[in-house]
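Q: Start with the shorter request: fold the first protein.
A: Done. Sequence, then structure:
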Amino acid sequence: MSTKHRLPLHGQSLHLTTTATSVTLTGLTASTAYNWRVTTNCSASASTAVSANFTTLAATGCQSSLDNATNGTISGAAVIPFNTNVTGLISPSGDNDYYKFVITTGGTATVTLTTLPADYDLTIVNSAGTQLAISQNGSTTSETITRTYTAGTYYARVFGYNNANNASVCYTLKVQLGTASLTGTNTPEITQNGLLKIYPNQVTDFVTVSVLGNVDKQSVINVVDVNGRVVMTSKMINNLQRVDVSSLPKGVYMLQVNTATGKLSSKFVKQ
C-alpha cells in the first residue's frame, strides 16, 4: 500500500510506502487543509485508490494571559512583571502587542525579544506614545534594547515587519532590570492615606498586610490578577496579617481589603 499526502502549496506531495494500516505524519501546519490518497499495489494491472481531505487542528495557545484581546493598543496594554519571560503571538497580519512596565527608581533596563518565528521588531514608547528606542534586526534575529530610564511609565511594542505574523509560534518578551527598579523590595506600599500597607512589594512567598483602624468580622482579603479575576481569598482576622501567595504565578496583582466601611487596595509583584 502506498499513501500520498498532498501539501497545500503548489500541489506538492509527499509519497510514503507502507504495509501497515496507518501512517503518522509530522510537521504539518496548524489550521491547514490537506488532501490524502491511498493506493493499493496488488499487482501491475490491479490497483485501487481512495482519497479524502482533512484540516489540521488549530495550534494550542502558547501565549500568556498578558497577550489578550485588549493589548493591541497602549490604552489596553497589560502590566508585565520584571525579569520574567512573557510569551505572545503576532496574528493576524498587522497585529500589535503593547506591554506596560513602570519604573519607580531611574536607571538601566534591558528589553529583549527572542524566539521569533518571523521578522518582528521591538520599540519602547513613553506614556505619551512617543517612540524612545527601536530594535529592528532582520529575519528571525532577536531584538534587544538597553537604555537608561527615568522614573515613569513605559510600553514595549512588538509588531511584525511588513506585516509578518505567525498564528502558532510565540515570541518571548522580557524586561530585565539593571540599575532601574520599581518600589524597593522592603519598602511598604502605602495607600488610602496610610490606612493600608503591604510589604514586601516584590514577593516570592508571603506578603504582609497592615490595616489601620478596626478590622471587623466581615473583613476579607482578595487577590486580583491583571484580568480582574479574584485568584485568592482569605479572612482578615487581625490588623497585621501574612498572606501566603507562593502558589500564584509570577505577575502583577492587586491586593484588596474589603471591610464594613469600605475597600482598600494596593498592587504587588509576585516574583
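Q: Next, the second protein, separately.
A: Sequence, then structure:
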Amino acid sequence: MARFAMTSKAFGFGIAAALLVSAAAVVGQQPGAGQEKKMVFEEQDTMANVLKRLEGKGVRLRLAGSGEEVIGRLQKVGKELAHLSDLSGREFFDAVVRIDQVSSVSVQVRGR
C-alpha cells in the first residue's frame, strides 16, 4: 500500500510539473505589457481584407455618410456584411454593417 501511495504521489507531481511547463510556454508566447500589437496593412488591401484579418478583435468602425461610430467585437466578415457583437453602450445588441459603408477602422494596439 505504501508503494502505491508513493507511486500516486510521484505521478501527481509529474502531472503538476507538466502543466506548469505547458502554462509557462503559453504565457511566453503572449505579448508582454511593453510590447505593441501591430495593425497590418498592405498596399493592395480592401476594406473587406482588413476587416477579415481583424475578426475576433475589438474594433471601432466609422460609417460613411452619417459618421456614426460602431464599437464592438468583430465576429464575422462576409462578402458584403460584417457582424459585430458586444456593442459598446448597447451590450444586449449585435449589429450587421455593410462593408462598403465603412469609412475607417480603428483598433487599439497600445495600452497605457
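Q: Describe the second briefly.
A: The beta strands are 58-63, 69-77, 81-85, 95-98, 102-106. The helical segments are 2-29, 47-53.
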